[in-house]
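Revision sheet: structure tokens.
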Amino acid sequence: MPLPKAGDLVYVTRAASVQFVKPIWCRVIRVLDWITYDGWCWLDVYQLDARGDAVARRSIFVQPAKLESGQPVPVPRNRHEQQRSRSDRIGDSRPASSSEQPR
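Predicted:
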């Protein structure tokens, strides 16, 4: 894999760097132009959780040739979150209670 570019999704495994015993999904912010060993680079990334949401900003030292690319499999949200996010998108359509009604 050539150097990733901003916005790329990469799967960072132990093959890319020994510190990643537990692989992580990341979205690349930028490739840092720091001097490193041949075949290695520093990346500024957002670490993603199981839903694909950014949970941490990190600078990681990896071998770009060993990075995997693709899309993380999203974990379904629980039913309560789905209902709440749906009502947030369309607005709360519940009738106002008697104390909230205008006079």
